[in-house]
Amino acid sequence: MSDSMLQRLLSWIDAAPSPYHAANNAANDLVDSGFDRSNPDDAWSDSDRMVVSWGGAVIAAAFSTKIDPDQLRFRLVGAHTDSPNLRIKPNPDLSHAGYQQLGVEVYGGVLLNSWLDRDLGISGRVVVGDSTAYETHLVQVDKPLLRVAQLAIHLDRDVNEGLKLDRQSHIVPIWGLGDAEKGAFRSFLAAEVGVDDFDILSWDIMCHDLTPSSPLGRNEEFYAAPRIDNLASCHAALEALRETEAVANNTISAVVLFDHEEIGSESSTGARGPMLSHALERLAATRGVSREQFLRALSRSSCISADGAHAVHPNYVDRHEPEHQVALNGGPVIKLNANVRYATDAESSALFQSACRSAGVPFQQYAHRSNLLCGSTIGPITAAQLGMSVVDVGSPQLSMHSAREMAGASDPAYLTASLKAFLGDT
Q1: Which residues of 295-313 are buried (b: 16+ CB within 10 A; e: fewer)?
Q2: Which pTM was predicted?
């Protein structure tokens, strides 16, 4: 990966501490590149390039110049904007033993120990107004406000034999001294937004680690950052779509960034909802495609579900399938699972392999150990919802679901190139 591309990725991750920032920034970047912005409740035009965002979700599309409604197909790349973290509760103001604290709820499959003893900021969205009108503001406070302090080893002599953390009692960040002040967090948000306390109606606010993303390693062959899962895939998909100059005839190439993948995708902006199917049908309708023609188009379409993949860990080699040990900087990983925890099958795998070869990119294959439970992605959900061929792929990484993750510095460029070849395939 070139230094400039790496820096773009790292800067993009740091500017997106919440799904709402990721979606907003993605839409703005595409508009700056010539995409036309629409709203979900607009009548969508027949623009050649368009982007729609709401909440933590984005859908962007590039159309071929010639589309025969009877030959239409979609080339789709899906990823997700959310990452496991700590989220502020509605009534968060607490005090214990002379400390002011904030109540948080664990979001997704967090590696809890990775959030200990880190300087944390807050980010997300705040809704302000009254019962008749309201508006949403993005909030990002990149200063050390919070810290979840770990118990000293002198008071827990067995901690190195196995740390156990209670989500209700032990993951409560400190942010001041004294007794709890009712409404203190609301007042803090009001000051950040520039409104009165009573104007704050609600919020979706989360914690984020303040350590900047950076290259890593003796020769900077790695990089370390928060939210690599799955902002690295989002960035690659957006770069690929933006750089796709020509779309094959009869094709709509699109990128969809979902929210809430880390908690099961069951939401209005998650992969289990109707957002994508509705959006694809509306995109097709801008080219005069009927419902019947749209449903036929789905059967000849294909999707890449882009998410993180597990690189082999040098300290835990026994946790990996011996014949499928994935390497950092080894190229995109095709993920397979016989029980369809990943959506890949022989045909969809072959399609992605072809895209990699076209882009001159190496690729790897991953299978989970048979005696360990396997995670899943938006891939099987998308395949089930749309009846579309789907392949699950992703860049390899270590420390998945940590507050700070690690990946290979060459892999984002490999993933971007393969996605570009897929989206622009003629």
Answers
A1: ebbbeebbbbbbbbbbbbe
A2: 0.96
